[in-house]
């Protein structure tokens, strides 16, 4: 039988008590939603580079890179958010804040401004 000490990452599962499974599962669903968002950013960046949208190369390549980088950052940050939240649940501590929503919003605004400026 697996114990909390043998689960990875240890700094998350090795502390506190098992929370109500509903909370852990909700945290996991939120993590997966952020992963879907990051996948959409990466797919959007690939599409901007692969599909002829009539954008100049000087705009298309940086826009594609911005979207792919935003996708990677979103994926990494969402894992950190999941881990900090799970640890807080186990310790009955207040849930941590996350700048992830602001990061995604700013990235989308930047990408939209680049597209609108190039039309």
UniProtKB/TrEMBL annotation:
<keyword id="KW-0472">Membrane</keyword>
<feature type="domain" description="DUF202">
    <location>
        <begin position="22"/>
        <end position="88"/>
    </location>
</feature>
<keyword id="KW-1133">Transmembrane helix</keyword>
<dbReference type="GO" id="GO:0005886">
    <property type="term" value="C:plasma membrane"/>
</dbReference>
<feature type="transmembrane region" description="Helical">
    <location>
        <begin position="63"/>
        <end position="80"/>
    </location>
</feature>
<keyword id="KW-0812">Transmembrane</keyword>
<feature type="transmembrane region" description="Helical">
    <location>
        <begin position="100"/>
        <end position="118"/>
    </location>
</feature>
<dbReference type="Pfam" id="PF02656">
    <property type="entry name" value="DUF202"/>
</dbReference>
<dbReference type="InterPro" id="IPR003807">
    <property type="entry name" value="DUF202"/>
</dbReference>
<dbReference type="InterPro" id="IPR052053">
    <property type="entry name" value="IM_YidH-like"/>
</dbReference>
<feature type="transmembrane region" description="Helical">
    <location>
        <begin position="31"/>
        <end position="51"/>
    </location>
</feature>
<protein>
    <submittedName>
        <fullName>DUF202 domain-containing protein</fullName>
    </submittedName>
</protein>
<keyword id="KW-1003">Cell membrane</keyword>
């Amino acid at each position: 039988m697996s114990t909390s000490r043998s689960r990875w990452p240890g700094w998350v599962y090795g502390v506190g008590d098992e929370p109500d499974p509903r909370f852990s599962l909700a945290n996991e669903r939120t993590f997966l939603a952020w992963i879907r968002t990051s996948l959409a950013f990466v797919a959007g960046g690939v599409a901007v580079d692969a599909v002829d949208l009539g954008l100049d190369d000087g705009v298309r390549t940086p826009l594609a890179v911005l979207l792919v980088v935003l996708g990677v950052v979103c994926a990494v940050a969402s894992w950190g958010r999941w881990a900090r939240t799970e640890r807080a649940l186990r310790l009955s501590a207040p849930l941590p804040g996350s700048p992830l929503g602001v990061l995604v919003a700013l990235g989308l605004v930047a990408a939209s401004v680049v597209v609108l400026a190039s039309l």
